[in-house]
User: Fold these one by one.
Assistant:
Number 1:
Amino acid sequence: MKARSDKLRGIKPKKRTVTRRLPPEQRRAQILERAYNFFSEYGLTGQTRHLASACGVSQRLLYRYFPNKAALVEAVYTDRFATTFDEAWLNELAVGGGTVRSRLIVFYQRYAEKVLTRRWLRLALYSALADNPFAAPYTDSVMQRILDSVASMSVHGMNLQRPHEGNALRDAAWMLHGAIVLGGIRHHVYGTSDAATWFREIETSVDIFLAALPALLGQQGDAAPSAEPG
Amino acid sequence: MKARSDKLRGIKPKKRTVTRRLPPEQRRAQILERAYNFFSEYGLTGQTRHLASACGVSQRLLYRYFPNKAALVEAVYTDRFATTFDEAWLNELAVGGGTVRSRLIVFYQRYAEKVLTRRWLRLALYSALADNPFAAPYTDSVMQRILDSVASMSVHGMNLQRPHEGNALRDAAWMLHGAIVLGGIRHHVYGTSDAATWFREIETSVDIFLAALPALLGQQGDAAPSAEPG
DNA sequence: GGTTTTGTTCGTCAAGTGACGATTTTTGGG
DNA sequence: CCCAAAAATCGTCACTTGACGAACAAAACC
């Protein structure tokens, strides 16, 4: 209405921004990709207008693909956040070649590089702080399986016996996992550590884990792997 | 203006909410205390109106004590967030009595109980995610000193030699510290672990750290402390 | 080429949101 | 008991922000 009467009155019409048209599936995927980065940087309270601008489309278009902001956020979690883990890594960890030490290091360096990225970690933290229910179930189940794999593979690979009671083994696996995740937080979120330091810490953490395992289980294991990889 | 004419016109005047008057210093302290809890729960984007309501005062009053919201947030960091650590703990860790193991456990359980609280951890994460510059310098300097103390006290207490090069010792201290902090995040932020589990993990983490230390430094230390505290 | 379909934008509303001038009311000193 | 000082609130402004009806224009179809 307004625009039309402006035009009739001779006021120069605002030039409409032109955006390349895309098939719906493609546009939706593009929005989700940008939204993943956007929300991980600015948090779940980031504005839809800013997100739209980051996508190079109008704000209104977001509401053609998602009924509201909450649905868009949820889609980011289910379509992008929860699909980063590669099941093959666990398999390689369990039955792959090489020493226990090298398999653990390869697994965790890959995990750090592909999963514990800046955007993944930040979004995981944002959702935890906001009591967002979408991230927790996924991360929980994946982490449980990682812990199980790491624990049993290490015990088996070092010719130890799995303890019948107590939580020492699980606690140890948690400590290893936790050290690596916190290294990622320091690197990606706090910015107080560089990538090389983080990757070196992964090696040291694996060494500590393996060196402590026999004593922790009260058993005599195979010779501990070299503690001086350099 | 409006209120007065309403009164003249006979419209019932809105009953003014009564709030107990406080001396400025006391009111300011009360606001900061509530704001600490408030921002740690709802994030730094929490609304001033909600905070005021949580304080039981009007929104306008906040602006009598702080020029703007940013100044209020900063005051929370400098006056409440950065004053939790007790220097005496470090001293006790360095020269206190008991075994290396028991001193480490006492120190970290105290640290976990007094510093790594729900509100402290949540606010630390919120500020890190928001690139808030107030928390990082404080946490950095405190953590550096903790790491130094833990490392040298452990090396000395186990009759080991401080290595002249390499980062293995520092990495190990980081791993210990990181495991405990991440336990706190799981407990307070993710809610996937209870307090008892966390405290038991602290013991196990210390055991792992101590068990691995001699091998990690390529030296023969004193007998490792019992790995089965139960 | 005309018509239909639909991807995309414009304009705008209502609720929210930090900030602050004006006003009210408690308090303490004389 | 009165009055000045100041603690606290009310009302409101300007801007933000999620949401959406209506208009527009690029493809697709015949």
Number 2:
Amino acid sequence: MRYDFSVTARGRPRQFDRDVALRAAMMLFWRQGYEATSINDLSTAMGIGAPSLYAAFGSKRKLFDEVVAEYVRRYNSFMVEAIVGEPTLTRGVRRLLRESAVAVTRPGLPRGCLVVSAATNTTSPEVEQALRKLRNDGIKALEGAVRMAIAGGELPDDTNPRQLAHYVFATMQGIAQQARDGASRATLEAIAELAMRAWPVKTPA
Amino acid sequence: MRYDFSVTARGRPRQFDRDVALRAAMMLFWRQGYEATSINDLSTAMGIGAPSLYAAFGSKRKLFDEVVAEYVRRYNSFMVEAIVGEPTLTRGVRRLLRESAVAVTRPGLPRGCLVVSAATNTTSPEVEQALRKLRNDGIKALEGAVRMAIAGGELPDDTNPRQLAHYVFATMQGIAQQARDGASRATLEAIAELAMRAWPVKTPA
DNA sequence: TCATTTCTGTAGTGATAGCTAGACAAACAG
DNA sequence: CTGTTTGTCTAGCTATCACTACAGAAATGA
């Protein structure tokens, strides 16, 4: 067995930038969703022919998987940062909701959240299930954070972690939905502010 | 011009119950969405051939329009009733949210809300826009109710009607979404309860 | 009975979906 | 240069999409 440690590739080099093409695909999936975006749409927007697309990404499904990973890395990392970047969970969740309102109305980018709306009602259940898992994992992660905040004395002992996590995520999903329906950033920020009025506060006994 | 007031139809009578077929189509669109439901799916579930379907309903698009109207009449009328059936808007909205949690998890019926999720990311923008209008009309209606509650002295004068209406609908859409993602009715009811903690209360000056 | 009207089943329309075979192009190693 | 490897392009694959032409079936009125 011989190993190839050479830097330069062997055959004809790729004529397009794979990352640029991936981002073009991301915008399309983000705006139109998985099912409504055809290979024709993709190859046109990515500036490459269908065979090049399949050589580089394997299939529509695999391309979408890469798009989702890149989307989460580039446009959804603010979620983790909002929680871990604040000294208390209360401030973290407030920031999470505020930044959600901003994230789903970024000028020059598609409205809404790809994870929330790109794979509702697809004919391929696996794709739908993949994003569903991402959403439910987010709820579970927030539930864990709430548990820690209760144990740490920040939140009341009678707080239900699962319910509170579901409430926060329901608000975020509502914000993402309404962004798609045309609501302004200011309106969505107001939703975020209002939602925080339901956040539990520990009253000193 | 001669008018036909006869009760019995002229030609060969329809071999199926139009309302039953419409309801079968509704279940399919509700569960799978507009785009992911094919004419083949429909004609199978409705128990009729494609030509009969087109003779009775015109087109997939027109069938969907009828389905939406029937859905709103049968499964979304609780919204208006919740608001007008309570003495105060505060109690009306609480009931609206609670019953939303129940409505999107009815046993034996598809999860979620057809208006919320049946036409996201369709290739035909008109269908998508039709449901979008239904959603935004709901927000506007609630905004009007909030305005009246402020004028009537129930809610604080500094309440922003548009923002509050958006907040309530965002919560409802989040509840509908999470129903599709598998959340239990109890969890969704807890979201509704939590959401009401953000509802404004008039404190006597 | 017969002509008319309307519905239903077979069988197919053109368009588009995701995807790929195969010929050629462009890089490499020797 | 030649041979190998890999990317791109043309063209076309099969399957399914929404939809319908057409012939037969089942009701009516006369």
